[in-house]
Structure prediction request, 450 residues.
Amino acid sequence: MNSLDEKKPSTFKINFFVGLTLVVFSIIEIILNDFLLSRLTLPLTLMSLIYWNVATPRNIGFVWTMFSGLLLDIFLGYLLGTHVIIFLLTSYFSQRYFHRFRALFRIQQSLIVAMIIFIYQIYFILISKNFSLSIIFELLALTIISSLFWPIIYGFLRYLRIKLTYGK
Amino acid sequence: MFGGEHKQTDIAQSAIFTTGSMRANRLYPAIFLTIALMYGDYSFDLGSKLRIISSYIFSPFSEIEFFARDTLNTFDSYFSSQKRLIEEIQVLKSKIRDLENQNLSLGDTKNSLNELEKLFDLSKSFEKKEIYLGKVTDIKKFPEELVSVEVRTTDITKDMVAFNAFGLIGVVDELLTNSVKIKPLHDLSTKIPAKNSRTLENLIIVGLGEPKSFQIEDFKKNGDISIGDEIISSGLGGKFPGGFFLGRVTRIDENDESNFLTVKVENSFDFSFGSKVLFTKP
Prediction:
């Protein structure tokens, strides 16, 4: 018998840590938005959301997704729901295709995440109607940086999930 | 070697057509709510109200930066003001030290001036005699008392006597280049022609080798002398100038086996006093 099965973590505990990491990443993203000179941001919340949806799809609902999206909308000054809607769609697709995502190599996962982030950033460029050559460079740069960040975020959240829920 | 990759590929192949239990109809309420939220913000500016409320709620957190900055400034100003105070104290201490040194220097100057004044008064009594001033450079204390004096003249001779602010204190013992060594009047080898200022009787006083102590040589038992008599130099013999105070009779001892009295004379002159010495010929 697997030792992890003997002591299953409570849903509350998982939900708590999901919420906590999403809120923390949102705050970091808000702070980074002030510090980064680019118009786009490093979507740490989105990556965290993808991880949790893929790692514990049954436990994670849409509440934290909406909350973190709302938090970003409020503090980044977007129309309410702008982040929420894209987070909801990301959560939906992540939960629907988590089996396939989990089966991929880390580098493949990074590429998928880069694609999601690319679409996410284009969504914000379209909303802000800010079309210029420089923003294309920013888009490409932040997409590459974000894909490089994925293994780090994945490893960190996985470590946290195991450590905090199983105490191992 | 590639076992792990094969396993991963197998899992991927089996998972490729697998989808999670998430159905789109579970998403619809959330999407509907979000659209309602967007409409609410667009139509009623809900976002601004929420931002104002959240700014109130999170104001303690947003003020952390200012609070931290204020605290840092307070610390900085506290330590910088403390530093300024310390520096000020150091400057004041240094000033006090300088003033103390200045005070000492002024005290020395005052003493020196007093000494010179006394020497000047003393020199008036020499009338037309040539006088020379010297600066004390070294003092040897009892038992072999000697004062080394730096002089800028070659006119000083071995027959000269030395004065300090008290009066007559010694004779020239040795002449060196640019300096003179003086031995005190109370040296055992010194014999000074003197007289009792009360009786005007001529006497010879000799040094006892102890500071400020003399003895009258061969004073007869039937002589007129009493304790407290003032002894001054007589000037006889030309070795010492006349009229200078040498001391007072402090003790008279009578010995049955001798025809002479043992008369002790003491003065209050400090041989090693002062920084200037005046030389003159008797």
Observations:
- Chain A has one domain: 3-166.
- The helical segments of chain A are 3-6, 11-35, 44-55, 63-76, 82-96, 98-103, 106-128, 133-166.
- Chain A touches chain B at residues 57-58, 62, 65-66, 70, 73-75, 77, 79-82, 84-85, 88-89, 92, 95-100, 102-105 (CB under 8 Å).
- Chain A has eight helices and no strands.
